[in-house]
Each structure stands twice: as structure tokens, then as C-alpha cells.
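Whiteboard transcription, Tuesday session. T.W. wrote the C-alpha cells on the left side:
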């Protein structure tokens, strides 16, 4: 498809903060393609993995299909509209107008495929593989295959199924005849047995392939390749979630779908890199917020070992934005649930489906019936996984909450968004969360699901163990600053299976929800223009881990060394005004040019009894850390260039240390590609991180400047930007300003060959990196 015009920031009123101040509108795509005459005896289908939103598809000027929801994959059967032996035209119209609470992107942002098949073929999403019976000696693999006969005659075919391991060995197979009447669709269920199965888990994500072939005499009619994993799931309030018989606690991250400097566009390598970095940061589970995941992201989770809560909707029948999916939900919800489950069924990474996020109907007796219908629909399509509903108790009791606040303050808060209410009425939030009213209003909704999703309601974790002894809870959305107390509750209670922070990866839209300001009169949760990103992620939009990420890793018990984070010295002495989604305004650096001799505060995160801080070999002091002190020690010192060291102690013995050194001398460009060899594919990318450093590699985070990138050869610059949460620069220009000393260039191959990336900046020697794109 041709590329649409790129979105540009235009709306500067605070309402535009939800979508990152990007424009909305209507987008048209047109493409011509040749259809061979031989396709008359074929079936031609077009798959759209994602079009945002309200997609209308036309082939040769005629209406061919539509799909309102922007996050579902859908199919358009093209045969009746095609002209054989000549050029054809497809047109796609997409519209987004005030229909999202975050940056959604617009238009065709995921893969589009032309599928050509014989009249007798495996149905779309027609192979579903399950493993209902597993032991060490063997596992039962059930392959359910739907075969369609769109011809005019009865056909008897052979269905051949092979199970292939990661080494390419056929470890099980079955052959069965199947008779199909004209126009009939039929299902064949085959049971095969894999000996000494290798189980899929987070630590050992072993995968198998199911090869399904449809044969007629010597004619090969169709073949479908399905990747799957062998693993079991179990759930109870004593042991919690068990995978392959072992209890697993979910170290979870909520994520939105955009890919930072790439916008909403989905590239397989971008999704894979995101999972790699999130897993390195200590997460073992992702929640797609608040929409179904892309196929590429699910594939990456399967390969790399990341558990998934796939979420369906942010709204049911009540709108949250003026023209959102609630306008279509009553008619389309079953098709979209079907699309999500069909997409997910064979992915071992998916362990639960969420039927909604912060749905107001969840607190209403009549409205909650939608939840029952959704849960029943999911179970009818997939009985092998669990169902949850991510409920915010404030939103479930919103009418009573608003009445209470109006009576207390004598002013209307009706038009306040849920995030604003949670941020500024914190005491009332706790009161409502723990109230009997909230218990009663949500009881029916939770009764319909297997796992109760609690958004920002950790205050109920222990009391609900007594109220509902059979209830299993997941912290489906939590504040980042509460991970230490939340994780203690998760570890110590079997009925609490995990914690999903808001949020694991920073994202476009909900601009500034995690910012720290220094204005005591600040009364908005979202940031005014030019705030662009939410700035609440453990990892920023370039993939760089922020200090909170290392704090979380320490809380999870996955990092033994302490971690140093320095509060930005320009704000010393000011009172920070954080939101509920904020972390401290810190950078892990000891380069603060211009602040020599001035006061600075240093935070050290450590799972240690005591932490000592040294500046240029002199002790600043010691302070308690560890769980009892929320894994954090704070120091105040005078900045002087050189070296700062944090040393962690337990029982008087050193157990770890971290050192930061000041950058000195000439500023240099450090240019590193995450991979210097990539495939010449539309879906592969090379991520080139550009940093300002000294000759020893120490970061110059206070010397930001414009950097120019020029790409030659077999590739193009797909995206270019920094993690700056409030920049007015574009992600598609060739010049960008660094933020905290860094900027990211994303290179996309266009053909096989050498891609030369030339990087220059004022006062720095030019640097060049080469990337090979191979077939």
C-alpha cells in the first residue's frame, strides 16, 4: 500500500493531550495489482491485520468489506469483484475522529496480505492445536482442522498432519481421508502423540510446528504451517497460577501498541526488540492495553518466552471518547472476540484473555450482563485459557463517587476524567476501593471471570481473600511507585498471581501523565502542548531503561548490584509535584556540567541493609536500604566532577557496587547498530542508537545538540527521534536533537545490499556505520 500522509502535531488544546496532540482525519489508500487469468479457479482473500479505524474497502470501485474496530485483523473475500487477466484497483478508507483515549495512529498500520488458494483449502484461521494431556513420557496433541470446499463437486481428500520439533524432526504424524460436499465446510480432529515432549515456558520457550497438508491423489491442494507450544495451565487461590505444574508470579508490564519513533506502524523486528528489552528488564508478562496484540508481537512472545494477557476492548456500550468503538460494540463485539481468539489460539504465550478495561458497565447489574456474554463467547471459542476483566472500582462506582465529591467540595467534578479523579482524590479513592458499595457493585462482574483484574485496588488484596476465598486476583494495572509494597503482597499470597505496572514502555498520547512538575498550582494530570509522550514508562520510547526499571528489577530480586539515580540538579530545592504515575525526576549520570559546587540529591536503589555513597573516594555517608526502607537510600551532596560509587552491604560485607564517572574532554559521537546484518525484508529493521560520549564512553547528558543522519544505499531512515517527552520536532526528519545525550535512528532495508548510515553533529567528528541487508 502507498504510505499515507504522516500525522503532524496540530491540536494544542488540552483535549489533544490524549492523542499526543496529533491530528485526526480521513485517510485514503489506493493500489493497483494484476490478477492472472488462472485465478478464476482460485479463491482470493485479502487479510488486513489492522486498520485504524472504521475501515471501508473497495475493489474496482465496489464496496467489498468494512471493519470498524481498529485493532482486529479481518478478511475481505475479493473473488466477486476481480477482473481477471488485467489490472485491478483496491481502495481503503480509514477514519479516526475523537475515538481514542491514547495515540491510536491512523490508517493501515499492520501487515496486509493477498491470500490465493485452491477451491478446496484449509479455512482461514482453520487450524487449532491444543495439548490437553501432558506428562513426561508423552503428550497428546489435538489438531483441529477446518477444510472448505468452495467448488461445485464433492471431493474426497487426504488430510496429512505432521508435528515437527525445533530441529526439523517429524515427531508425530497422522493421515485421514475426508469427504466434502460442494460448498461445505467440515472439521477434522486428529490426535497424535509426541514422546518426551519439550515443554514451553518463560525460561525455555520450546516450540513445535504443525504442518497440515490437503492432498487429492497426487495433487497438493493446500498447506498450513502452525507454530505452537506444549504447556499446561492451572489456577487456584492457594498456589495461584501454575504453568507446567510450577507456580509462576507475573512480573507484568502494561504496554500500548505504538512503537515510539516509528509511530503506530507495526514492524516484526520492532515488536521483537520490544520484547527482548522488556524481558531483559525483568518482566515475564505483558498486558496489551487496551486492544488485541499484533500477530508479530505474539510471535515474539512465543519465541522469547513472554506471557501474555491479551485484551479485547477499552469500551463496551458506554463511550469514553465522542466517537469511539462503543458506537459499534453492540453489533460487532462477537466478530471482534472471534478475531482475537482465532489469532491467539495457537500461541503458548497467551495465558488469559481480558474482556475489558475499566468498563463502567462492570458496576451495573444490567450492564455487567455484557461481561457474561463476552466471557461465554470467549470460552465457547477457547476453553484452554483463563478469562479476566480489568476493573477499576472508582469507575464501577462512578455515579456514587461523583455525588460524594460534589457534596464534599460543593462543586461539580462530572467532567473530570478517571485519571484526574484518581490523581487528585487519592484519599477518597482508597475509601471507595475498600467500601462495601464497591464490593457489591463488582461482585457480579467478577463472578463471570476466572481471574479478577484489579486496577489500582491493591488495598483490597488481603481483605478480599476473606470475603471471596475462591477469588484469584491479578493486579492488572498498578502505580509504578507502589511496586515494592505490591510485589510483597504478590509474593506472600497465593491468590494474587501478579502485578502489571502502568506502564512498561513509554508511549505516545496521554501526554505527560507521568511527568514531574515543580509548580504547586499545577492541577492537570495531562501535560499541555508540546508534551507528547505519557512519560510514565519503565523504558522510554527509544528502548532505553529509565531508573525506575532498575529499581523494579531490584524489587523483583533479579539484580544484586545497587543502582545510582541522580535528581536533576536544576530543580534542587524545589518541591516536586508528581502524579500518581510518576517516578522521581532522575537520570543515571554523574555528568552535570555547569553545576559544579552546587547541591545535588542522589538516590541509590538496593536490596541491601546499608548503602554507602562515595564521591571521588570520599564517603558522603551511609544509609539504610532494603525492603524495610523501600529499597531506596537518599543522599545529599555537592556536585564535583569525577567518580561516584555506591556500595551495598549485608552483615557488614560488601555485596555489590555501581560506579558512574563524569564525561570529560571532547564530545564524541558513539553510533551503535543493534544489528549490523539484517534481512532485506519490509519487516526487518536496524536500531541505531546515537550517543554523546567522551573517549571512555561516559555519557554527556548535559551537552544536547542537533544530530543529522544521512542514509545511503539499500535502506531508508524509517524513524528518527529521542525520548524527549515534549519535543516539537518530527520523527521523520533527518535532523533531531538529543535528549539526555541520546537519539535513536531506525533504518529499514529496501533491497539487498549495503546500507551506509552517516551521522554528524556540531563539534563532533562524523561517524559512519554500515548495515548489510541480505536475502
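and on the right, the sequence the group agreed on:
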Amino acid at each position: 500500500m502507498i504510505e499515507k500522509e504522516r500525522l503532524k502535531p496540530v491540536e494544542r488544546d488540552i483535549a489533544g493531550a490524549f492523542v499526543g496532540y496529533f491530528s485526526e482525519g480521513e485517510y485514503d489508500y489506493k493500489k493497483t495489482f494484476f490478477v492472472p487469468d488462472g485465478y478464476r479457479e482460485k479463491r482470493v482473500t485479502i487479510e488486513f491485520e489492522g486498520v485504524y479505524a472504521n475501515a471501508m474497502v473497495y475493489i474496482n470501485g465496489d464496496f467489498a468489506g468494512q471493519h470498524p474496530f481498529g485493532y482486529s485483523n479481518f478478511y475481505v473475500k475479493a473473488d466477486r469483484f476481480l477482473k481477471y487477466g488485467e489490472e485491478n484497483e483496491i481502495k481503503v478508507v480509514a477514519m479516526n475522529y475523537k475515538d481514542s483515549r491514547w495515540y491510536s495512529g491512523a490508517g493501515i498500520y499492520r501487515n496486509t496480505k493477498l491470500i490465493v488458494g485452491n477451491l478446496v483449502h484449509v479455512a482461514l484461521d482453520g487450524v487449532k492445536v491444543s495439548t490437553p494431556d501432558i506428562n513426561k513420557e508423552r503428550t497428546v496433541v489435538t489438531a483441529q482442522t477446518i477444510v472448505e470446499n468452495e467448488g461445485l463437486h464433492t471431493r474426497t481428500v487426504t488430510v496429512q498432519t505432521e508435528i515437527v520439533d525445533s530441529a526439523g524432526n517429524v515427531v508425530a504424524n497422522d493421515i485421514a481421508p475426508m469427504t466434502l460436499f460442494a460448498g461445505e465446510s467440515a472439521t477434522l480432529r486428529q490426535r497424535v502423540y509426541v514422546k518426551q515432549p519439550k515443554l514451553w515456558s518463560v525460561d525455555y520457550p520450546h516450540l513445535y510446528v504443525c504442518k497440515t497438508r490437503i492432498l487429492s491423489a497426487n495433487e497438493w491442494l493446500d498447506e498450513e504451517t502452525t507454530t505452537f507450544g506444549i504447556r499446561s495451565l492451572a489456577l487456584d487461590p492457594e498456589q495461584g497460577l501454575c504453568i507446567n505444574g510450577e507456580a509462576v508470579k507475573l512480573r507484568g508490564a502494561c504496554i500500548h501498541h505504538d512503537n515510539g519513533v516509528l509511530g503506530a506502524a507495526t514492524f516484526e523486528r520492532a515488536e521483537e526488540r520490544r520484547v527482548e528489552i522488556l524481558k531483559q528488564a525483568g518482566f515475564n508478562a505483558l498486558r496489551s492495553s487496551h486492544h488485541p496484540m499484533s500477530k508479530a508481537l505474539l510471535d515474539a512472545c512465543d519465541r522469547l518466552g513472554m506471557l501474555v494477557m491479551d485484551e479485547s476492548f477499552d469500551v463496551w456500550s458506554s463511550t469514553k471518547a465522542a466517537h469511539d468503538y462503543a458506537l459499534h460494540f453492540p453489533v460487532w463485539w462477537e466478530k471482534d472476540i472471534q478475531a482475537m481468539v482465532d489469532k491467539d489460539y495457537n500461541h503458548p504465550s497467551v495465558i488469559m484473555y481480558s474482556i475489558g478495561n475499566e468498563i463502567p458497565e462492570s458496576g451495573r447489574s444490567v450492564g455487567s450482563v455484557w461481561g457474561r456474554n463476552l466471557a461465554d463467547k470467549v470460552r465457547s471459542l477457547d476453553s484452554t485459557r483463563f478469562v479476566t476483566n480489568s476493573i477499576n472500582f472508582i469507575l464501577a462506582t462512578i455515579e456514587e463517587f461523583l455525588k460524594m465529591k460534589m457534596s464534599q467540595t460543593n462543586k461539580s467534578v462530572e467532567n473530570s476524567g478517571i485519571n484526574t479523579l484518581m490523581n487528585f482524590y487519592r484519599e477518597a479513592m482508597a475509601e471507595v476501593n475498600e467500601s462495601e458499595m464497591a464490593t457489591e457493585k463488582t461482585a457480579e462482574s467478577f463472578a463471570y471471570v476466572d481471574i479478577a483484574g484489579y486496577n489500582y485496588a491493591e488495598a483490597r488484596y488481603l481483605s478480599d481473600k476473606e470475603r471471596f476465598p475462591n477469588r484469584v486476583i491479578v493486579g492488572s494495572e498498578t502505580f509504578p511507585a507502589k511496586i515494592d509494597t505490591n510485589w510483597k503482597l504478590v509474593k506472600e499470597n497465593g491468590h494474587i498471581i501478579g502485578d502489571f505496572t502502568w506502564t512498561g514502555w513509554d508511549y505516545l498520547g496521554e501526554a505527560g501523565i507521568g511527568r514531574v512538575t515543580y509548580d504547586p498550582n499545577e492541577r492537570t494530570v495531562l501535560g499541555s502542548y508540546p508534551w507528547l509522550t505519557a512519560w510514565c514508562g519503565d523504558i522510554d520510547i527509544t528502548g532505553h531503561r529509565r531508573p525506575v526499571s532498575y529499581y523494579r528489577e531490584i524489587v523483583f530480586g533479579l539484580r544484586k548490584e545497587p543502582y545510582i539515580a541522580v535528581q536533576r540538579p536544576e530543580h534542587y530545592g524545589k518541591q516536586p509535584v508528581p502524579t500518581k504515575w510518576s517516578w522521581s525526576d532522575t537520570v543515571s549520570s554523574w555528568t552535570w556540567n555547569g553545576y559544579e559546587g552546587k547541591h545535588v540529591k542522589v538516590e541509590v536503589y538496593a536490596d541491601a541493609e546499608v548503602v554507602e555513597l562515595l564521591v571521588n573516594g570520599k564517603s558522603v555517608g551511609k544509609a539504610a536500604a532494603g525492603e524495610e526502607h523501600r529499597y531506596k537510600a537518599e543522599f545529599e551532596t555537592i556536585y564535583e566532577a569525577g567518580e561516584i560509587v555506591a556500595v551495598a552491604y549485608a552483615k557488614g560485607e560488601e555485596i555489590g557496587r555501581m560506579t558512574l564517572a563524569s564525561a570529560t574532554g571532547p564530545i564524541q559521537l558513539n553510533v551503535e547498530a543493534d544489528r549490523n546484518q539484517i534481512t532485506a525484508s519490509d519487516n526487518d529493521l536496524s536500531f541505531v542508537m546515537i550517543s554523546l560520549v567522551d573517549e571512555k564512553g561516559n555519557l554527556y547528558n548535559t551537552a544536547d545538540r542537533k544530530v543529522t543522519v544521512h542514509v545511503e544505499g539499500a535502506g531508508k531512515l524509517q524513524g528518527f527521534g529521542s525520548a524527549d517527552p515534549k519535543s516539537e520536532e518530527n520523527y521523520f526528519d533527518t535532523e533531531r536533537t538529543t535528549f539526555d545525550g541520546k537519539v535513536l535512528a531506525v533504518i529499514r532495508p529496501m533491497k539487498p545490499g549495503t546500507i551506509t548510515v552517516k551521522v554528524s553533529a556540531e563539534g563532533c567528528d562524523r561517524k559512519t556505520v554500515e548495515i548489510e541487508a541480505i536475502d
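Someone added at the bottom: Residues 284 and 306 are 5 Å apart (CA to CA).
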